[in-house]
Amino acid sequence: MREPVTAYVGLGANLGEPVRALQQALAALGGLPRTTLVRHSSFYRSAPVDAGGPDFINAVAELSTGLDAPGLLAQLQALEQGAGRERPYRNAPRTLDLDLLLYGAARIESPALTVPHPRMRERAFVLLPLAEIAPRLVTPSELAAVAAQRIAPLPPTSLSA
Length: 161
Hints:
The protein contains four helices and eight strands. By secondary structure, the chain is α+β, with helices and mostly antiparallel strands. Strands 1, 2, 3, 4, 5 and 8 form a six-stranded antiparallel beta sheet that branches. The chain has a two-stranded antiparallel ribbon with strand order 6-7. The longest helix is centred in the middle third of the chain and has 14 residues. The termini are far apart.
């Protein structure tokens, strides 16, 4: 049995019912084998980056997991598929997007997985929620670099079903 690793997962959706999709995904993340949902950020509304379509709802989750990185990625992709995720083209609108951002201190470069996530430091929709739950992982200069990207926390009243 492997020692648990702290992993961070970016969540996003902009098709269907994105708030509900993220709520369901968070519940599902906590139910993954040998995995505990430690905490998650607030939900944020953000403009699509390098794409069109409706605004995204985004969050970041902290997990403690005994899964290895490829195993966790496979579980995340299965959750995306279960939510109806299609990949017709790069940055297409989506019902659910789950990105493995960080996996402990690991640096992974493979055809299937790159960790840390290669564009996470360029995206306000990753850095703001990550800074909310793990401020030591995001620098003020990184936040300043994405300050022009449109993003805002969702008011708690918009999270009720």
